[in-house]
Specification:
2 copies of one chain form a homodimer. Chain A has 2 domains: 253 residues, Rossmann fold (3-Layer(aba) Sandwich); 78 residues. Chain A is built from 16 helices and 13 strands. In chain A, strand 4, helix 4 and strand 5 form a beta-alpha-beta unit. Chain A starts with 13 loop residues before the first strand and ends in an 8-residue tail after the last strand. At the A-B interface, helix 1, helix 2, helix 5, helix 6 and strand 6 of A face helix 1, helix 2, helix 5, helix 6 and strand 6 of B.
C-alpha cells in the first residue's frame, strides 16, 4: 500500500481551494487523492462549515475532517487587501503545475478569473455556483426544484421525499475535478488557461436530461409516477423475511428473472400469469408493467423463510440482491474492515479510524491521502499563517 | 454557441466504450462533451439496455439515446474471434490519442488490460465493476447494502426508502471520466498506460466515508436517525402553503435564519424559545436540535398564505428556498427553455427536443454533442458494421 507520490497521475499539480461545504472540498480531496498538492484557504476563524455536524463528543467535525483530508491549510484575512494578495500570490505563483483555483466563493472581484489572469495568463479557475444566475442554492433546494422528491418514497405517502445523500453536491464536486483535469490537459498542450463555471442547478438539470427524466415529458407529454422501492423500467423491489430482514432484489435480465422464479418455486404460477396476461417476462417492460402481481407471487417465499435461509438460497443464483444494512453495520463489516479501499488514518482531533481512499484503483493500487489538519488549528490561526504544516505563505 | 471541436479540452482523444446501462455510457458521453471522439461498441442486436424504459410511443428508448449522444456506433459479434479482433484493433490502433477503453464488461480475457497491453503497451483501460470481488451489482443493490435507504423518507414510515436517482451510477460514471483524463495526463507526460478498476460498491463506500456517514459510527459508536425532509445538521425542511404549494427552506447561516424569522414574523416567539431552552440559534447544532419547535413556529405563516405570496415574500430575503416542482413543470419552464445549458437536438428515432450539454461551461461556452445513432440501426446492424456514420471498421 506504499505510494510513491510522484507516480500518481496528477503529480506536480498545485491547486488552491477557497471553499466550503461539499462540492468544492470534494473536488480538492479527489484531486489530492490523484496526486495533486491541494491547499485549502480559510478565512480567520474558519469557513461556515468548520464545525458542521456530525462532530465527535469533543466537538471536532467529522464532516470537515473527512472532506479536507490530505490538504495543506492556509488561513488569511480575506477582507483585507493584504490577505487577498496572499491568496492571489498563492494561486498565481510561477511554476508549471500551479495557477489553478477551485472555489465556491464566486462574485469576488479580487478572486475572479479576470483579476487572476492578469497576474498569470494561463490560470485555470473553476467557480462552483449555487444557481446559474449567481444566486445561492444548495443541494436540498436544487433537488426540490427538479422533481426527484416527487417520485421518491412509499407510494401510499402523498408528498415529497428528499434524498439523504447530497447527490448533486457529489456530482458537482466530481465534475469540478474533471474540469480541472481537462483544462490542465489543454493547458499542457496549448498553454491556454480556462475559466470554468459550474452551477449546481445545471449539474442536476444536465443529469436529469441525460437520464431521460426531463426528456420524457418533453417527448411523451407525461412524467413518470413514484414507484416506491420498485426499480423503474424493469423488475426490482424489496422483500421482508420471516425474522424481519429486508432484501433488495433486481432481475435486470431474463436470466436473473428465471433464477428468481426458480429459487422462489413459482414457475407454474408465473407461467400461468404470463399466459393469462399475454405478457412476455423476458421483456423489461412486461416485468415492470406487471410488477405488483410478480411481487405478490414472490413475497410468500421470503416471508416464510429466515434471513439466513434467504441469503443462502439467493447466493446460489444469478439474481442481483443485497440485504439492507445500516451505516453502523456496514462500518463494522467486511466492506470496510477487509476492503483495500480503506486504510488506517490517524486524524488529529478525531483519532484513528479506517478511511476510504479513491475508489478507482490504478494498476491495483488505491490512492490515499494523509489526514486533514485539526480544525481547531484553523479556528485559532491568526491571519496569513498556516494552520497546516506547509510552511509560511507570506 | 458554435463550437470549434479542436478547441475542446479533450480534443484528439479516441475512446472505445464496450458498455451498457448508466455509469459506463455516462463516462463516454461526458468525455465526448469535452471533445473526445467516443465509439460505443455493441453486440449484435444491441446490449441489454437498447430498449430500456422510458421509450417513445414508437418504442425508441429515451434512456439509451440520452446516454449515448455524440458517439459513433460499432456493432460486432463479440462471441466470435473475428468480432473480438475488430474491437481489439479499434482500441489499440496506433495514434497519440487512441488506446483508451472504458467498459463495464469485466472478466473477458480478450478485452482484458493484459491482452490489450500486449497489442499496445501504453493502453489505458477503465473497468467498471459491480462489486469489488467481481460479482455483479447495480445501483439499487449497492445502495441497499450501504445504509442510505434507512435514513431516507418520512419519519413515521418504518422501513427503507430507495432513492429514485441512480446516484452511485452517476458518481461512478464521473469518476470513470476523471480516471481516463488523469491517466491520459500521465501517459502524455511519461508514456505509461494505466489499468484502472472502479467498483460501483467502492464508489458508494468511498463517498459515504468521506461525507462522514461511515466515520460517525466508527468514531462515535452511533449512527444517525432518519430525519425525514429535514436537512441533517442545520435548519432546513419543507412547508406547505394555503393552496397546497410546497417549499424547501434552508437556513444554513445565521443571516438566512434571521431572515426566515423576520419574514415569518416570529421574532418574539423564537427569541423567547431560544432563551427558555438556553439555545443559540446562530449555531447550526442548536437550530438542528430544536428544529421541530422552530418548524412549528414557522408553519402557520406558510399555511395561511398563498403560494404566490410566499414566493414573493421569500424572494426578498436571503433564505435559501425553492418551490417543489415535478419534471414536466421543470421541462416546460425557464430552467430548460431559457437556459444556455440546453440546445435543440434532432435525435433520430425521437425527434427534436431541448437536450442538456456539459454543466461545466468553459470560458462561457457549454459543450454539446450531436445526437445518438438511432437505436433501431444498432438492433438491425449485421456484425462488424457500423450502425453510425463513422465508416467501416473492418
Amino acid at each position: 500500500m506504499t505510494t510513491t507520490p510522484d507516480s500518481r497521475p496528477l503529480a506536480g499539480l498545485r491547486i488552491v481551494e477557497v471553499s466550503s461545504f461539499v462540492a468544492s472540498p470534494l473536488c480538492g480531496l479527489t484531486l489530492a487523492q490523484l496526486g495533486a498538492e491541494v491547499t485549502r484557504v480559510d478565512p480567520i476563524g474558519g469557513a461556515a462549515d468548520i464545525g458542521r455536524l456530525p462532530t465527535t463528543a469533543e466537538g471536532t467535525s467529522i464532516y470537515w475532517t473527512g472532506l479536507n483530508k490530505g490538504k495543506r491549510s492556509v488561513v488569511a484575512d480575506l477582507r483585507s487587501a493584504e490577505g487577498q494578495r496572499i491568496v492571489q500570490d498563492l494561486v498565481t505563483a510561477p511554476g508549471e503545475g500551479g495557477g489553478i483555483l477551485v472555489t465556491n466563493q464566486a462574485g469576488r472581484e479580487w478572486l475572479s478569473h479576470d483579476t487572476l489572469s492578469q497576474l498569470r495568463s494561463d490560470v485555470v479557475t473553476v467557480e462552483i455556483l449555487g444557481r446559474r444566475d449567481g444566486r445561492p442554492g444548495v443541494d436540498y433546494t436544487v433537488n426540490a426544484a427538479l422533481g426527484f422528491p416527487q417520485i421518491t418514497g412509499p407510494r401510499e405517502h402523498a408528498g415529497v421525499v428528499n434524498h439523504a445523500l447530497p447527490a448533486w453536491d457529489v456530482a458537482c464536486g466530481l465534475y469540478a475535478a474533471l474540469a480541472v483535469t481537462s483544462a490542465v490537459r489543454r493547458r499542457e498542450r496549448t498553454g491556454l488557461g480556462s475559466h470554468v463555471t459550474l452551477p449546481l442547478d445545471d449539474v442536476a438539470l444536465s443529469i436529469a436530461s441525460t437520464l431521460g427524466y426531463l426528456t420524457e415529458p418533453q417527448v411523451n407529454g407525461a412524467e413518470r409516477d413514484a414507484t416506491g422501492n420498485d426499480v423503474y423500467g424493469t423488475y426490482g423491489t424489496d422483500f421482508v423475511t420471516a425474522d424481519g430482514g429486508r432484501f433488495m432484489i433486481v432481475a435486470l435480465t431474463p436470466r436473473h428473472f428465471r433464477d428468481l422464479v426458480s429459487v422462489t418455486g413459482t414457475h407454474d404460477a408465473v407461467a400461468a400469469v404470463e399466459k393469462a396476461l399475454g405478457a412476455d417476462f423476458a421483456r423489461d417492460e412486461d416485468r415492470y408493467r406487471h410488477r405488483e402481481i410478480l411481487t405478490a407471487l414472490f413475497s410468500p417465499w421470503f416471508r416464510e423463510r429466515s434471513t439466513d435461509d434467504v441469503r443462502t438460497a439467493l447466493a446460489e443464483t444469478a439474481v442481483l440482491h443485497e440485504q439492507y444494512r445500516g451505516f453502523a453495520e456496514v462500518a463494522a463489516g467486511d466492506a470496510v474492515t477487509a476492503n483495500p479501499l480503506f486504510a488506517q488514518l490517524d486524524q488529529p482531533g478525531i483519532g484513528t479510524y479506517l478511511a476510504a481512499g479513491l475508489p478507482a484503483a490504478f494498476d491495483g493500487e488505491h490512492y490515499f491521502t494523509g489526514p486533514a489538519v485539526d480544525p481547531a488549528s484553523v479556528r485559532q490561526a491568526p491571519a496569513a499563517q498556516n494552520a497546516g504544516e506547509s510552511g509560511s505563505v507570506s
